[in-house]
Amino acid sequence: MTEKKFIFVLPPEHVRHFGKTLQVLTKLGEEIYIELSNKTNGLSFRTANQSRSSYSCITFKREFFEEWPQDDIQREKIKCRISAKRCMSAVHAVLSSKLTRLELVFDDHKSNLSFILHCRYNIVKVHSCFYIDCEKLQARFDKQSYKNSVSIMSKTLQELTAHFPAKWDEITIRATKDQFIIKKCDEIVHDDDSVVYSMNFQVVCEPREFINYDIQYNSDITFCLREFKFLLGLADLLNLPMTLLFDSRGRPIIFCFDAEEFYFDGIFVFATIANREGETDPSFTASQPSINDISTMDEDDLVSYRQYTINTTGLNRGGKKRPAPSSSPLQTTTNLSDINNDHTSIINPKQR
């Protein structure tokens, strides 16, 4: 970027939406990647968690802002990242104050992003975050390749999962043409290496409770509950249709929404648990074609956020639950100067 300032101004009616969505991102990752997107003509905020098992992106369109920098910004580059921890104080101030105006000021000379809060009685507060120029953060997935798609109001989804305590590590979604089940299972490993699942809790829904319900493959997938709960925090603010895309184990589950009336959209990608070595996916019957035959499967590099091991070093003796590994096999690269399409490549390949 050349040495200049870029100023984005938000009207008071959009301040809370901006603060709430940014608050969700600060909980999902340690760094927030910011980019001016010429393709969508908007300002994008992205993050991925430390283990690179989840990816989130929210794009605020040009109409979301009351004032937008001059057209020459399209020839400039805004690609930077800020600390989510430093950003939290600014987000808290935005949500706790009654603002008449909010300004985002990118100062290229000082490498500084300022949140300028205009409050009542002409009180002005400034929160600043140092930023670092960086490459684009993207995730590799293909929404068109997914065989299962359901849409449901976000608050309905929140109500369905409200009974699941946040302290639980993960939840499982089992979808068939006739039922959609959200459940919690505990995995018990016995001394003879056998695995037993004990049912704790489940919620059963019928297709008529969904806006759209298109299940082509019976699916049984498990993913992290904690990050999913953060996503549902947006349901308190927005009651919009949420679309879920998923199919087999090991492929990521995608949650996306488009708040057209508020001029922003979001996409959240969470890794799911893959099969153990030698185990077949119970999601599919022998009469169904294998998902692995789909050519686009190799394009999905966001894989399970934990891998099971069958040797004794991965077992917890005495019939106890097998703990999740402390690290993920996923790796991330942000050197994507040769990638042109949004959401097409960050999270590195499947562990073989």
Structure commentary:
There is one protein chain. With 352 residues, this protein is mainly beta. The chain folds into 2 domains: 5-133, Proliferating Cell Nuclear Antigen, CATH 3.70.10; 143-314, Proliferating Cell Nuclear Antigen, CATH 3.70.10.10. Helices cover 13% and strands 35% of the residues. The chain contains 4 helices and 17 strands. The strands form 2 sheets. It has a 13-stranded antiparallel sheet with strand order 1-6-7-8-5-2-3-4-17-16-15-9-13. Strands 12-11-10-14 form a 4-stranded antiparallel sheet. A hairpin with a 5-residue loop joins strand 11 and strand 12. Helix 1 (12-28) packs antiparallel against helix 2 (84-96). The protein starts with a strand and ends in an 82-residue tail after the last strand. Mean pLDDT is 77; it is low at 284-352.
| Contiguous helical run count | 4
Low-confidence regions? 284-352
Biggest sheet strand order reads 1-6-7-8-5-2-3-4-17-16-15-9-13
Structure class: mainly beta
Number of domains: 2
Protein name: Cell cycle checkpoint control protein
GO cellular component, one term: checkpoint clamp complex
Organism: Adineta steineri
